[in-house]
Amino acid sequence: MLIIITITILFVSALTLMLLRVFNPDFRYSWLITVAGVFLAWISIFFWQLKIPIFLTLPSWQPASLFANSPILLADKLSWAYAFSLGTLAIGVILTAVARENFPSHPAWAGTLALSAVGIIAVLAENSLTLVIAWSAIDLAELITLLASVRGEKLRERVVIAFSTRIIGSGFLLWAGIISITEGSSQNFLTAPQGAGIYMLIAAGLRLGILPMHMPFRTESALRRGYGTMLRLTAAASSLILLARIPQDSLQSPLIPYLLGLISLTALYSAWKWFQTKKTLDARPFWILGMASLAFAATLNGNPTGSVAWGVALVLGGGVLSLSSVQNKWLSRLLFLSLVAMSTMPLTLTATGWESKTLQWGGFSIILLPAHALLLAGYFRHIQAKDKSSFKSHNPFTSLAYPLGISFMLSSLLLLGFWGWEGASSIGVWLYSIIILLLFALIIWLHPRIRGYTPPQAHWLTATKIPQRKSFVYNTFWNFYYFLRNLSQQITKILENEGGILWALLFIILFASLLAEGIR
Fold first, then answer.
1. Which of 326, 208, 344, 340 is nearest to 266 (CA)?
2. What is the pLDDT of residues 100-125, one digit of tens each?
3. DSSP reduced 3-state for 76
4. Domain boundaries defined on the chain
5. 381: which residues sit within 8 A by CB, 6+ positions away?
6. Strand stretches in 60-166, DSSP E
7. pTM exceeds 0.70, yes or no
8. What does the pLDDT look like over 4-21, one tens digit per residue?
């Protein structure tokens, strides 16, 4: 019941905004209704703690032979952390909307509320069917948003290819569910057989751009800070939750050390580009790649709680930085608290990040620890960025809304360090924390003195232009896309010329003959 209340509040608030836009576009209190809706939903998530774990079974799908399990939602200590972070991010987006140029923007606010509801459903998914449904809704929202905001055939094609990559990731998750059914177990994540874990890992890797390393499409948009931030981080959180659901027994594969090596290199490269890129929104995809890589490494090291810590830090830490678009001396100083929460020091959100239940892959820490230090150093540099605008409002109430939104997210980052979820109040690996802080200080000190060490942009990660050379992943999609398009054009030309009628009669005769054989 508590889960239904939260999701209903968000969807009803979004629907109310759209109805007001259609029937009463001059209504003056739309923003207040949005704030009230998202705040009530956020408060309701706190009440989940009274009954965790919470199961919500939705009506069964037919036929039962195809859908062995109905969609089920599960709120436990791990999924609660993600749901709470998405609710907090939605509050931050709505409250900081007063500082953006497109204020008021009813569609963006309604989209933010709806996305937060779908994102919460995704992180609560208890089986592959439920998660794929939520993924599909998020993918369609992203596809529609990007197709509406880009211009030019080439850019639209890249949008479709990025969408196809996510769909293939969903296909791998469905395949993992099929493997579970064929081996006599249910589709839920807790009882996944040994052969299904690697497919679940690939599904999350494809959707996040980690396995293999590639960058989802990004584009300039007026909604990049508000609705765009909600869209990007919700998509990331909905994929990262899968890492915490993969049973460790199902990850027994000789490919694991090779995957961990690739993930470590992805983390290091992404962290370096995050550190070097000047504009925060341009660097945000590298932040997602870097933090998601650390979450992957935690999962492969037998630490699903650590993967949630990195994932929540990705959402809240990235949200705070993405939404901080206004010059404010005191807020800029408060943003440094995010560094503390993400430093893996004891009693912080990421304290569990470096814990490990296996000692096999400890050697990869040589790569992952510098990657984490670079992510923190990049965060430090983006806090000090000078490209923020000024905000002047004659309404004292709206002047308080922007800092209140940032403060909500900062407070949540600190709160999760010692309360509310399975990894709270952890001491962590204090030796790694010291090493990371020393590396962080060294990088900050060396950077202005060694400016030549800037790596070139990898051609497969160039997202704002169409690259002359393409990676294997995108090249495969491009070739398949053009093959289908050319085939369709050739068939159209054949059927539209003078011999089209003859070809049509030939197809009818062939179809009739096949049908006749089947009847016999």
1. 208
2. 777 777 888 999 999 999 999 999 99
3. coil
4. 2-469, 480-519
5. 275, 447
6. 72-75
7. yes
8. 999 999 999 999 999 988
